[in-house]
Write a structure and sequence with these properties.
It is a single chain. The chain has 135 residues and is mainly alpha-helical. The protein has a 3-stranded mixed β-sheet with strand order 1-2-3, with no helix packed on it. The mean pLDDT is 74.
């Protein structure tokens, strides 16, 4: 673990690294979903631009921690489903995520909101479990 930053300038490399990690995490999550990639790029850029003038080291250090949490959430806490021709959402969970979820007993895959699935909120979407071709 590196020593705590004492100046905003000393945090700059960490912020740039966090930005790149966040950029890669969103690309990994959204893959070929062009609309989600465009929207997430816009949001990430706007958030970083809005914080450009922060001068308080404690506040900036907290923001770096928030970047780390966001990257972790994108990589570990969110999966994206694809609507198949039968009207079901197919969710592919990487073996690593699946193992972590089973260990924590937290494999709950649900839509974010009724608009996501375009059905009645009381309707339970069918979940189709598939395995990855990855070793």
């Amino acid at each position: 673990m590196s020593p705590p930053a004492t100046t905003i300038r000393s945090l700059a490399p960490t912020v740039r690294s966090g930005y790149r990690r966040l950029w890669r995490a969103r690309k990994s999550l959204f893959g070929a979903d062009t609309a989600a990639l465009i929207k997430s790029a816009s949001i990430v850029r706007a958030e970083f631009d809005s914080k450009r003038d922060v001068t308080d080291v404690v506040e900036a250090t907290g923001m770096v921690s928030a970047i780390d949490e966001c990257v972790e959430m994108l990589r570990e806490g969110i999966v994206q489903g694809e609507l198949n021709d039968r009207g079901n959402y197919v969710v592919r969970i990487d073996p690593e995520k699946n193992a972590a979820a089973k260990k924590d007993d937290r494999l709950d895959v649900e839509p974010i909101d009724p608009d996501t699935i375009g059905r009645d909120p009381a309707a339970k979407p069918e979940v189709v479990v598939t395995t990855s071709g990855k070793p």
